[in-house]
Design goal:
The complex is a heterodimer. Chain A is of the alpha/beta class. Helix content of chain A is 41%, strand content 10%. Chain A has seven helices and four strands; from the N terminus they run ααβαβαβαβαα. Chain A has a four-stranded parallel sheet with strand order 1-2-3-4. In chain B, α3 links the parallel β6 and β7. In chain B, the strands form three sheets. In chain B, strands 1-2-5-4-3 form a five-stranded mixed sheet. The radius of gyration of chain B is 20 Å and the shape is globular. Classes of the chains: A alpha/beta, B alpha/beta.
């Protein structure tokens, strides 16, 4: 357990009192990273490990990601777990397009990252040929701990985002 | 009746249409000409009680004429015997469907059509099953590369060439055979 005084990402009301002054970016990123609702694109064997991570022993719910929303409209991060065949690839892309911003993608396992062991006529060699991937997790399948490490790495990436600046850019783009 | 006797019965009934039979370690294979394969398979199900079609597969010999070969694996729950029926098919011939004999043949024949390009007469729904409709190639033919060929069908699917980096990744046997490499094999001999 990291003591609240040693990290910028925790809040202890006994120390800081009931009024917190912070940057909007820090607050927004804290909220986003601690409630990443996954859209499980469970295509093959990695999906079993994804289910194991969601079960009680490895408990992805500790990280706020228990709510596996199978609707892309309600989810934040798409965990592509399993072999992406060319036949399924456009469906994955369509679901990715339906997810609202902010969204992230985790490529779980060897097949989603790079086509895995399947160098063949039917397998897309990595989902990053179609959608932007934030975290790649290697393994065949990766252990649940590895998936949790990948999720934590994504959380660290989100911590460092300039959310307010991005939203300002989007507002300016919309207005112009 | 065991499989050997069944093969004998088939030889008696379909004598002229048979190309050959083989028995390898208890696995009985019978090779028939294409015109009689459906009649023989119907006889297998009705008279010899092979009520389970285990698999339909196809082989691309590529250099020989006829090019392809259909392979039917049969099994009977009552007598617990397996039988393999093979039939050579050339590139322009189409095979009579057995989906009216065993309904499971429906999807197996669709897979053979998808992967090899062999068409089936009388099939109720002959379309691709693994690749998508409109995919221009037959992937399991010998002249199709493992890495695939690029194709584009907007809104449906696309394919690319997989980087093989000098593969396919097969292991070569090396200088010593398995007897030297695996000491347990030697110990068993003694």
């Amino acid at each position: 357990m990291i003591a609240p005084s040693q990290t910028h990402a925790a809040y202890d009301s006994k120390i800081e009192g009931n009024v917190v002054i912070t940057k909007i970016d820090a607050a927004i990123n804290w909220m986003r990273k601690n409630s990443l609702w996954p859209m499980p694109m469970g295509l093959a064997c990695c999906a079993i490990e994804l289910m194991a991570t969601g079960a009680s022993r490895y408990d992805i719910s500790r990280f706020g990601a228990e709510v596996f929303r199978f609707s892309p409209r309600q989810s934040d991060v798409m965990i592509v777990s399993g072999t992406v065949t060319y036949k399924m690839a456009l469906a994955v892309k369509r679901i990715w397009d339906q997810m609202p911003e902010p969204k992230w993608c985790i490529a779980m396992g060897a097949c989603a990252s790079s086509g895995g062991m399947y160098r063949s006529y039917a397998v897309l060699q990595g989902i990053d040929q179609l959608i932007p991937v934030d975290v790649y997790i290697s393994g065949c399948p990766p252990r649940p701990e590895a998936l949790l490490e990948g999720l934590m790495r994504l959380q660290r990436k989100i911590e460092g985002e300039h959310s307010l600046l991005d939203q300002k850019h989007q507002l300016v783009d919309q207005l112009s | 009746m065991n499989a050997q006797q069944m093969v004998e019965a088939l030889k008696q009934k379909f004598g002229e249409a048979l190309i050959g039979t083989k028995n390898h370690l208890g696995e009985h294979t019978i090779s028939v000409k294409l015109e009689s394969v459906k009649a023989l398979l119907k006889y297998c199900r009705d008279e010899l009680n092979f009520d389970y079609l285990v698999d339909i597969s196809s082989v691309d010999h590529f250099e020989t004429e006829p090019r392809f070969e259909m392979v039917y694996e049969l099994y009977g729950y009552g007598h617990h015997q397996h039988l393999r029926v093979k039939s050579p098919v050339s590139e322009d011939e189409s095979v009579p469907t057995v989906s009216d004999i065993w309904p499971t043949a429906n999807w197996h024949e669709r897979e053979v059509y998808d992967m090899m390009g062999i068409t089936f007469d009388g099939h109720p729904d002959l379309r691709r099953i693994l690749m998508w409709e409109g995919y221009p190639f037959y992937p399991l033919r010998k002249d199709f590369p493992l890495a695939g060929k690029p194709s584009e069908m907007p809104d449906v699917a696309f394919t690319g060439i997989a980087p093989l980096e000098g593969g396919p990744f097969v292991t070569s046997p090396g200088t010593c055979g398995t007897v030297e490499a695996e000491p347990r094999a030697k110990r068993f001999e003694q």
